[in-house]
DNA sequence: ACCGTTCTGTTCTATAGCGTACATAGCGGA
DNA sequence: TCCGCTATGTACGCTATAGAACAGAACGGT
């Protein structure tokens, strides 16, 4: 048996003997044929996969059926971060892009390695997953949606983070954020203004019809919003039974 | 200390009294004027920011100077995940997009909350950060680069995860991954073939000139590669011990 | 050796967004 | 009050990519 396998998984290889032995006693060696779906959008993940000579694509599949790759995972990584990030699932699909093999570990076994970590950590991880969702959706949106749709998404994301329905933001600035021309924003904003959805002048934008804005936006806003709400429900910490909630974060 | 009631930070609000009190004894209340840069690409972060009534944009600034927003952070989150993810910095810039305030915590204080967590966790987190980098860069690439460039990037990312210089992948499949038309891939691949960079037929692609491929690719590949190498150097620690694997799962 | 299927190549038109140039309009300081 | 600056509006040609339709080419089972 060769000592230095050419296609071992790098993450597993980097672990100490102690941890590795504990994990490997529960590890399965599985074949991953091309096209196999490891998990669908929203699926509760049961295993994490450590690819060795296979490649897995994380895709976001849109309502239209069109898809875009969010990221790609090979022997440098693992599939199923949501299991330890705390979200248990993601809005993306994992498909085998290049057939091969992987080590597979029941999610529970991975979580067992985490069972001493406190609430702060769990909270951070869950937030991180929400952030990742946003990033992914941004990539998708950049690929597939019009400036008009993206402006709506962007306004809604901003609106959710502000106390009023006004934001101070020149079209030039928005263009930089979206990575488009200022003129493109001018046109899109003009349309929204003509529709009575927003009102603006010299860097002061007032949202008049939020509902319409949501209608005009692409699905990307809703996806991020829904996932963020799911991951971070923000139970008020002033509640007296706060500490009794904490154990639910531990598995 | 003033406890900003209407616009408290949601993450802080969700913490238990115990943890919150420990954190708040080291917390600063800072003003964030519009346009202030919280950190530049590659900067070692000293603080994490919990915005209350401000919005911070995470931007990736390209070599050309053009920029694209990776994500946006408001009172639902925090700026500086790299501090607890283990990377200490990111390739992105954080700019105040909407002036306001935030709670600021020295990074070390946050890390103190993490100091009992084992090596597995740290490894996972570092990987996650690398993945996040890839996602971010995908968003950037989708916005700004041609199909030709994106194909090069994609081939390189795949190549790095495979043992040989051959990959089995139809143009149709690649098109799905990149979120573009199959015809677009056909054209881009044709150009590469004519340049002698690759050779392919019916789903079998051989990379002949990797160096050229890197030249033709946009910067996005290099950014992700460099960051991944930095976060996960895979130091030649203990090699895997075959005997620790359950016999039936050995290769 | 054949035939159907699956890949790849080509060509047409349509359009969104870019680059560029320049015009207008509102605010704010002197 | 005026000037200058910044923000917004508009217009024109250009290009990359989408959408669609179809032709050729190679593989693989029977």
Automatic annotation (TrEMBL), chains A, B:
PROSITE patterns: CNMP_BINDING_3, HTH_CRP_2
Protein keywords: DNA-binding, Transcription, Transcription regulation
Domain Cyclic nucleotide-binding: residue ranges: 11-98
InterPro entries associated with the record: cNMP-bd_dom (IPR000595), cNMP-bd_dom_sf (IPR018490), Env_Response_Regulators (IPR050397), HTH_CRP (IPR012318), RmlC-like_jellyroll (IPR014710), WH-like_DNA-bd_sf (IPR036388), WH_DNA-bd_sf (IPR036390)
Superkingdom classification of source: Bacteria
Chain ranges of the HTH crp-type domain: 145-211
Pfam families: cNMP_binding (PF00027), HTH_Crp_2 (PF13545)
Classification via PANTHER family: CRP FAMILY TRANSCRIPTIONAL REGULATORY PROTEIN (PTHR24567), HTH-TYPE TRANSCRIPTIONAL REGULATOR ARCR (PTHR24567:SF74)
UniProt protein name: cAMP-binding domain of CRP or a regulatory subunit of cAMP-dependent protein kinases
Organism of this sequence: Pseudomonas cuatrocienegasensis
């Amino acid at each position: 048996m060769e000592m230095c396998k050419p296609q071992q998984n790098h993450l597993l290889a980097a672990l100490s003997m102690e941890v590795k032995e504990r994990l490997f006693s529960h590890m399965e060696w599985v074949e991953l044929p091309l096209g196999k779906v490891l998990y669908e959008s929203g699926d509760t993940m049961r295993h994490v996969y450590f690819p060795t000579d296979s490649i897995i694509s994380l895709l976001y599949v849109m309502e239209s059926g069109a898809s875009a790759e969010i990221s790609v995972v090979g022997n440098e990584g693992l599939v199923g971060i949501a299991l330890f990030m705390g979200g248990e699932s993601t809005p993306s699909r994992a498909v085998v892009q290049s057939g091969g093999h992987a080590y597979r570990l029941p999610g529970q076994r991975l979580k067992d390695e985490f069972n001493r970590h406190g609430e702060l950590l769990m909270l951070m991880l869950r937030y991180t997953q929400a952030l990742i969702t946003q990033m992914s959706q941004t990539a998708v949106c950049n690929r597939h949606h019009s400036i008009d749709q993206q402006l709506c998404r962007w306004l809604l994301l901003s609106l959710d983070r502000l106390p009023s329905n006004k934001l101070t933001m020149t079209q030039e600035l928005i263009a930089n954020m979206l990575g488009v021309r200022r003129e493109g924003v001018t046109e899109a904003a003009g349309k929204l203004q003509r529709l009575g959805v927003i009102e603006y002048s010299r860097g002061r934008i007032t949202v008049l019809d939020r509902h319409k804005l949501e209608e005009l936006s692409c699905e990307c806003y809703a996806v991020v919003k829904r996932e963020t709400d799911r991951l971070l429900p923000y139970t008020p910490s002033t509640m007296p039974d706060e500490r009794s909630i904490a154990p639910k974060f531990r598995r």
